[in-house]
Specification:
Blueprint (H helix, E strand, L loop, with lengths): L49 H9 L3 H15 L3 E9 L5 E5 L6 H7 L2 H17 L1 E8 L6 E7 L4 E3 L10 E4 L6 H5 L27 E5 L5 H13 L7 E3 L2 E2 L14 H6 L1 H17 L6 E4 L4 H6 L1 H6 L2 H19 L14 E2 L6 E2 L3 E4 L6 H18 L21 H13 L2 H7 L1 H9 L7 E9 L8 E5 L1
Parallel strand pairs: 7-8
Antiparallel strand pairs: 1-2, 1-14, 3-4, 3-8, 3-9, 5-6, 6-7, 10-13, 11-12, 14-15
């Protein structure tokens, strides 16, 4: 350009230009060695059953399941609000202004629909459990708008191994990854149906009818990737035009599937310990704890009761019956709520020479030798390790310090713990909202629209109210 004293070179579109039409914005992708298998599935765990194994183990961990459910509820808060950020106030806080309903009905209708609310419930559960989610974005027939988001269970989803450019092109959906034992005999192997054909460990092409293949949206270039997939789907004959947008929370040294932070408690064995303690205590209560008294009955008691001649004349069967009847009478006399604190009186002889006792029934209480205190202490330690690994303050669940019996569960402790937890949710929530931001951009709602969660914040009563509403 002589007039402008400039030279021009037409290069590929780059990240600096503000668009991501090519993979140049991805950076350098390390080559991953592919594992030869049917469908080129990227294994999730050594046996490709990582989420199924976690769900099976956690089925026995009451406090772990409750804590994860609490985390999911806390993430959802009071729901999502669309709005704009109109600057910052004097305190450095953003000035959030909710969208006008009349001018943005399509945004509100999408967020407040029953389908999206259901998606959010299922989405947050898999998020806190596995740290990997697979939302399915459904397009209209013309592939111009995203009409709905459907949650696909993490247990059913597996990546196809990435290509040489480091791009994951497909996601497989199937129940075949863990159907038979988990679905039919989850807690009791004896309940497994007879003649059940087990799913093979290694899939073959013959089982392709049990596996659905969907296009995978590039999470690092979501908008342009979705546009490219939409163009391909438009000319195809698929009845449902959709694609998967993987969403996950990053963890170190993981290529395909991320690992939630709380999995450390599982690997360390704390969750398994917490699951075993209740069954151990149940066994102790049902067996050792029922033996509370040792009752001693001398053999001389029976000749005294029946008379020497009568007792000697009895055969073995009659003597067993007499002893059994005595035990039943004593058991009926001593057991039951109505017999609590009853007085038991027995009669016996004393020798006039050496004052020794004869024919005396002796009842001795058995001192418990169980380790219940030790087991409860171990259970308490396991529960604290699980809650801390899940980043849930034990105070919220009323848990105390191990070994002290002290429980910090007052109103102030719970309130402060909840406030700290809520303050750490902002970044995690923004990652979770990636599917909704993709809908915003693809449907062209407006790039200035942002989404925030409504929270209920506990306050002290001297403020005039027990709680207040905030957005984050």
């Amino acid at each position: 350009m002589p007039g402008g004293n400039a030279s021009v070179f037409f290069s590929q579109t780059s990240a600096l230009a503000g668009t991501f039409a090519t993979n140049s914005a991805r950076g350098t992708a390390p080559i991953v060695k592919k594992i030869q298998s049917a469908f080129q599935v990227a294994q999730w765990g050594e046996d490709n059953r990582f989420p199924q194994n976690i769900e099976r183990l956690m089925g026995y961990c009451g406090i772990g399941k409750a804590a994860l459910d609490w985390k999911a509820r806390a993430l959802m808060g009071g729901g999502i609000i669309p709005g704009t950020v109109d600057g910052m106030d004097d305190k450095g806080e953003e000035i959030f202004k909710p969208l006008d309903y009349q001018k943005n009905r399509q945004v509100y209708n999408f967020i407040r629909s029953r389908e999206f609310n259901r998606f959010l419930l299922e989405y947050t559960q898999d998020w806190v459990w596995f740290g990997n989610c697979f939302p399915e974005l459904v397009l209209d027939n013309e592939c111009k708008k995203i009409t709905n988001i459907v949650h696909q269970e993490s247990c059913d989803a597996r990546f196809k191994q990435m290509n040489d450019s480091g791009v994951i092109e497909s996601v497989y959906l199937s129940k075949i990854w863990g159907l038979a034992s988990d679905q039919f005999a989850k807690f009791d192997p004896k309940k497994k149906p007879k003649n059940l054909i087990e799913n093979p460990e290694n899939l073959t092409e013959a089982e392709s009818k049990y596996v659905a293949t969907l296009d995978c949206i590039d999470m690092y270039d979501a908008l342009e990737s979705t546009k490219a997939i939409a163009e391909k789907l438009k000319s195809g004959n698929k009845k449902v035009k959709s694609a998967i947008l993987p969403v996950n929370y990053p963890s170190v040294n993981k290529t395909y599937y991320q690992v939630p932070a709380w999995d450390g408690a599982r690997l360390a064995g704390w969750i398994e310990i917490a699951c075993k303690i209740p069954s151990l205590l149940k066994s102790m209560y049902s067996k050792a704890f029922n033996i509370k008294y040792h009752i001693e009955i001398p053999e001389s008691y029976f000749p005294k009761k029946f008379g020497p001649e009568t007792w000697e004349a009895m055969d073995d069967e009659k003597r067993k019956t007499a002893k059994k009847n005595l035990l039943e009478e004593m058991n009926e006399f001593l057991s039951g709520d109505e017999n609590a604190y009853k007085t038991f009186v027995s009669f016996f002889d004393v020798s006039p020479h050496d004052h020794t006792e004869h024919s005396r029934i002796k009842i001795t209480p058995i001192e418990s030798k169980n380790n219940i205190d030790k087991e409860l202490l171990t259970s308490s330690a396991a529960e604290l390790q699980i809650l801390i690994s899940m980043q849930v303050n034990p105070t919220i669940f009323g848990a105390g310090t191990v070994g002290t019996g002290s429980q910090r569960s007052g109103g102030s402790d719970i309130r402060e713990s909840f406030l700290v937890h809520s303050a750490l949710l902002a970044h995690e929530r923004q990652i979770m909202l990636e599917p909704l931001y993709l809908v915003r951009d693809f449907n062209e709602w407006g790039e200035d629209i942002v989404f925030r969660f409504r929270d209920t914040v506990l306050t002290t009563l001297d403020t005039g109210a027990g709680s207040k509403k905030v957005v984050s």
